[in-house]
Design brief:
alpha/beta; 19% strand; 22 strands; 17 helices; FAD/NAD(P)-binding domain
Length: 532
């Protein structure tokens, strides 16, 4: 049997892309190497009675158009808001809660700086304007460098969003693309806690110091999403992140997509310079008119293709494509909720993103530690307790927590393997949270840890990179993954990309899958007009 399209990888972007192609009448096959669809967005039981999102863990960037087009709510998806966005516990006790409305946040911030509380409305307006520009670009294929009139028109059209900003808005946008998160936030605020809460977004999935130029962009990248129509909000999918991809699976099957699990691809089949199908590790050959890669660009171009099938300059640039977001991920089963010093034992702070990293200086030391030692002696930990919002994840009275930890080198500098030190590092992470919540260690019933190496082996995240490539200016928009191929098309005719290694980048957005499908359908329409 020959397919109109084969999609490699049943992560969320692969499912989104497959849905749009099949809805347009194409015969689509999705091939997944694991026994479950969803990529990094899956929910599994990790201890009897305890389930959690195993890798990705929160909802915000999932595009509302994708939700509507796939009718994910009709497929059973339910997303609930965090009552507040973030809680920053402090070493001396207490902490800063952000979210739940401007006035509430201002009251919180005023405890540390009245000046900063006064700045908040202006900051939010400035960030919202910048996020609106990014939000508008998210569902548009970038213009391709070296392209023709069509790409010039794309460039002009997409530049309108920037042109519509007033001068102040354009200055803020320029700052976000060029400054470090530290420089950017220092221009707005004076107190460490509020800078830490906002600055944390700049190092999530970004193995860099908050003082690194360009890190301010990563800050705003995490803010262009929305939940249930509320811009910039964060939420939780009832049933965990796997509820999203299972709803997507059902939507795909409803439009005729065929999904095969435990079907790892060994090679992309290229005939006469054009993608013609795939060869599975089992030796089975499957023919198709086009192939779509929903996997890390390095895996696509260095593992599934032969070097001679690629232009030498492209191959050289792909060899130098930078990955490694410095992430360590844990899930824990808890006998009780964490009790943070000088905070109520219950409250909406427990349903937020709990950031154990009290200042930008702390984050910077963590990065430099990781560069020297492989991991920080004082790691950055975000704790999420989704069972506060979703009682389906744990037995009554018990809880699950996700620990999303930043600045862990993809490769250890002393030549050791992450397998040698994983448990030592997991203990350090638990100790870090216990410094803020003294009952935390004793409340842990079970744990599962994913080092950067585990994330690569399990989820095909090269170097543990949750973004499928560094989110730096040289790897964004029309240059993601490589300038000249930022429009989801590869150097090989009939071979496309639809993963987070393409615009707009990482996060559970569905945008790369949506955009790639539109470009594939555009090419198919052109071919049909030319050849009937």
């Amino acid at each position: 049997m020959k397919y109109d399209a084969i999609v490699i990888g049943a992560g969320h972007n692969g499912l989104v892309c497959s849905f749009y192609l099949a809805r347009a009448g194409m015969k689509v096959l999705v091939l997944e190497r694991r026994d479950i669809v969803g990529g990094a967005a899956i929910t599994q039981e990790f201890h009897p009675g305890f389930r959690n999102s195993m890798a990705s863990y929160a909802v915000s960037l999932l595009n509302p158009k994708v939700i509507a087009d796939m009718d994910l709510h009709g497929q059973g998806l339910r997303i609930v808001h965090r009552l507040i966005s973030n809680f920053l516990p402090l070493p001396e006790g207490g902490g800063l809660r952000v979210g739940g409305g401007l006035e509430r946040t201002q009251e919180e911030v005023a405890r540390f700086s009245r000046k900063d509380a006064g700045q908040l409305p202006l900051y939010y307006v400035a960030i919202d304007k910048a996020a609106d520009v990014l939000r508008d670009l998210a569902l548009k294929a970038p213009p391709n460098a070296g392209g023709g009139v069509h790409d010039l028109l794309k460039l002009a059209t997409q530049a309108r969003g920037v042109a519509k900003l007033d001068l102040e808005g354009q200055r803020v946008l320029f700052d976000l693309f060029t400054l470090s998160a530290r420089e950017f936030l220092d221009r707005w605020f004076e107190s460490d806690p509020i800078k830490a809460v906002f600055g944390f977004d700049a190092i999530v999935g970004n193995f860099a110091s908050p003082a690194a130029p360009g890190s301010a962009y990563v800050l705003v990248h995490h803010l262009f999403g929305e939940v249930n129509g509320v811009k910039g909000a964060w939420g939780h999918a009832i049933g965990g992140m796997g509820a999203i991809t299972q709803a997507m699976k059902r939507a795909c099957e409803a439009v005729g997509v065929t999904i095969r699990t435990e079907a790892p691809v060994a090679r992309v089949l290229v005939k006469k310079g054009r993608a013609a199908g795939v060869i599975l590790e089992s030796g089975e050959t499957i023919a198709a008119d086009r192939v779509v890669g929903n996997l890390h660009p390095k895996l696509l171009y260095t593992k599934l293709l032969s070097p001679e099938e690629l232009d030498p300059d492209f191959a050289h640039r792909m060899d130098n494509y930078v990955s490694g977001s410095g992430t360590f991920r844990m899930n824990v089963a808890l006998s009780e909720l964490p009790k943070f010093r000088d905070m109520p034992e219950t409250g909406d702070h427990l349903g937020s993103g709990i950031i154990c990293a009290p200042s930008l200086d702390y984050m910077e030391r963590a990065y430099h530690d990781a560069k020297v030692f492989g991991w920080s002696r004082k790691p950055i930990v975000e704790l999420i307790i989704p069972s506060v919002l979703d009682d389906s994840l744990a037995p009554p009275g018990r809880h699950v927590a996700a620990m999303f930890c930043q600045h862990f080198a993809p490769e250890l500098p002393d030549g050791r393997s992450w397998d040698d030190v994983k448990e030592e590092v997991a203990n350090l992470i638990i100790d870090t949270v216990t410094e803020y919540a003294p009952n935390f260690r004793d409340s842990i019933l079970a744990r599962v840890a994913f080092s950067p190496l585990d994330l690569e082996r399990t989820f095909a995240l090269v170097g543990g990179d949750i973004m499928h490539g560094r989110m730096s200016l040289d790897q964004l928009w029309a240059a993601r993954p490589v300038l000249g191929h930022g429009d989801y098309r590869s150097p090989i005719d009939g071979l496309y990309m639809c993963g987070a290694g393409t615009h707009p980048g990482g996060g559970v957005t569905g945008a790369p899958g949506h955009n790639a499908a539109q470009e594939i359908l555009r090419d198919r329409s052109v071919l049909r007009r030319l050849f009937g």
